[in-house]
Structures are given as C-alpha cells and as structure tokens.
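Supplementary notes for students who missed Thursday's class. We covered one full example, reproduced here. Read the sequence, then the structure, then the short commentary at the end.
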Amino acid sequence: MTPAASVSRVTLDAQAVADAFGLGRAESLSEPVARGELGQIRRLVTDRGGWAVKESLEPFDADDLAAAQTSGEFHTACVDAGVPSPAPQTSAGRYVAEVDGEQVQAYTWVDLEDPDPLLDPEAVGALVAALHDVRRPARGAVDAWFEAPIGQREWRAVLKASRGAGAPFADHLAELVPALVEVESTLTPMSGVQTCHLDLWADNLRATPTDGLCVFDFDNAGPGDPGRELAMVVFEFGQGDPGRQRRLYDAYREAGGPGRLTGRTDFALTVAQLHHIGHRHLRMWLAARDSEARARSLAGIDEFLSRPFLLPDLDSALDATT
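Structure (token representation):
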C-alpha cells in the first residue's frame, strides 16, 4: 500500500461496516489512509478497538470471492499459529462483505513503519520460517504471474511502443531488454507444494513501532514452493549484500523453515514477479489518460529499471546462500 492521494471518495457508513463484521459500536471511519492498485484502506474505530477496512477498487467476481475465501482461511491459520499479522475478520463466515454497495474486508488494526528492505535479516528469516511452517495444502493451479516469462517478443513490443510514445525511460529499457530476456531463461513451472503468501515484498513485511515485525496482505496467497518464496525474500531483504543474504538464509534454516536454495530455478518466482510488475507498469504508463496515472506508473517503472535482477545478481545470491 502507498499513502492515499486523490482517490475516489466512496461513502461508507461506519456502523454498517462494524455490523457486517460484528465489531461493536462504531465511533469513526476515516478517509482512505493508504491505497494500492486494487484497494484502499480506512481506519474504523469502535468500542472494541481499531480496525483496518479494505475497500476493493475493482469488483470481485465469483472466482475472486472464492480466492479471497481461500486466502482468508490461510491468513487466519497463520495468525492462529502465532505469525504476527492483522487478524482477518469474517462476516457470516465470509472474508468479504458487501456494505453500501461496496465489497470490503476487515482486519485488526496494526501500526506499521514505512517499508524497509533493510530490516534485520535474522528476524525476517525467522518470521518467514514460521509462515512456511503453516502447512496448508495447495489448491488450484499456479498463476502465470508467478512463473511465466514476459518473453522477448513482448519486451520488444513494449519497447517499440515506449519509443513511439516518447517515453523518458525508453533508452534505459532498450539497454536492459537483452539481459531481461537472458535471466528469464531460468524460469521453469513452479510446483504447488503448499499454500504460500507469494507477495513477501517490503511493502507487506514491515516493522512495527515496538520493534516487532508484521506480515500482511495475503490477497495473493496460493499454491507455491516455499524454497522459491524464500529466494524472493533473500533478494528483497538481502539487498544484494551477500552477508545479509546469508544471515537471512541461515536464520530461516535454524528456525526450521522447509525451503532450500539449490539452483538458479529457485529464483524463478522472483524474476517472474519482478518482470510482471515492471511490465504492468510499462503497459499502464502507455495506457494512462491523465498525469496522475502516468506519474504512478512512472514511479514503478523507475524502481524496476533502477534495480533489475539480472543473471549475475542471481548467481551472486545463490553463491551467498549455498
């Protein structure tokens, strides 16, 4: 989530939200305090405490609702197992409720620090081990977002379109395309070993003001390989530092985490997600109809191009952990 700015203002009745999830007598419901691409967060205060209310910015279809139920059940199992996370609330046994015509979810409120990929690597490793120790069966197929390459043809197509649109990043993208295609050669299908979080970036694994850690936003949870998710965490919180990468990996193993890094393909989840995120921002920039949308996409493009994860980086992380 990012700080909310110029988001659509939907009128929600605080008591209606509280009643939907059985949260007590409502005292206040804030304007959006944070938002992502698909949802925004408001803070609800009731006589029972504070709650995070997530509004979807796109309607849930039947498949989305089923996926939200599955991810909510996994999230609840993790909280019950002691993983530090805002507890999801249910409405008549469902994790998504319709209130005032809007689809919302609710969680216990947790104060969080800003995203920081330089969190203590040992603490991160131990938390991810605890998360992976919640062995929920994998359901369904692995989404292409987590395993499929963008491919040379599409990279070249988006480069051509960027040049045609006079994009300020076109030259930098052109320099990187060969290396992006090269690192995609390591991608192989991912086996659904167990249910995984699948979105353990610094945005969703943060410190709290009391120096603890908290993992949240289980919306992408689904079938995955804990070793590949561990590799993604090594990339994100290792920050290219072999010492940090090794400390995180060792702490994870010492805490009993089941994942292991043994070869290049273990980083396939990392490469696939980074490339799909970057490609999405590129396509969104090209399709943007206003300056605000273009600026949001450009920030994501700058992050993607300024910190590419290329084959030498992959091999360095593999060397540090094996």
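Commentary. The chain has ten helices and eleven strands. The radius of gyration is 20 Å. If anything here is unclear, bring it to office hours.
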